[in-house]
Amino acid sequence: MAELKLPELAEGVNEAVVSFWHFKEGDSIKEGDEVVEMATDKAAFNVPSKASGQLKKIVAKEGETVNVGGVLAIIE
Fold first, then answer.
1. Residues 63, 31, 70, 7: is their CA dihedral positive or negative?
2. Number of domains in the chain
3. pLDDT band (50, 70, 90) for residue 10
4. What is the CATH number of the domain that holds 11?
5. Strands 71-75 and 53-58
6. DSSP conformation class of 6
7. What does the alpha-carbon distance between residue 21 and residue 57 come to, in Å, rounded to a whole number?
């Protein structure tokens, strides 16, 4: 099992909002797939998966704010 977490962002930026999930729970994903789009007040960006497997659970729903290091999803 692996956790998809919000990576470090630009200096002074400590959180981002979940804009759009490119996959839904139960989907198979591969390492490197862009799983979720995040947005800050300055930019939008995608978070890639660091593991292959099944998107078991989406922890952060669209519209939610997540702090750097916060869990976005569980990959099994």
1. negative
2. 1
3. confident
4. 2.40.50.100
5. antiparallel
6. P
7. 12
Query: If you average pLDDT over residues 12-41, what whole number do you get?
Result: 96
Confidence of residue 47 (pLDDT cuts 50, 70, 90): very high
How far, in Å, CA of 36 to CA of 49, rounded? 9
Q: State which residues form the domain around 66.
A: 2-75
C-alpha–C-alpha distance, residues 9 and 27, integer Å: 27
Please spell the DSSP secondary structure of 10-36, one letter per residue: STT--EEEEEEESS-TT-EE-TT-EEE
Distances (CA, A) of 49 to 6, 10, 75: 11, 20, 9
pTM: 0.93
* pLDDT given for residue 28 in this prediction: 98
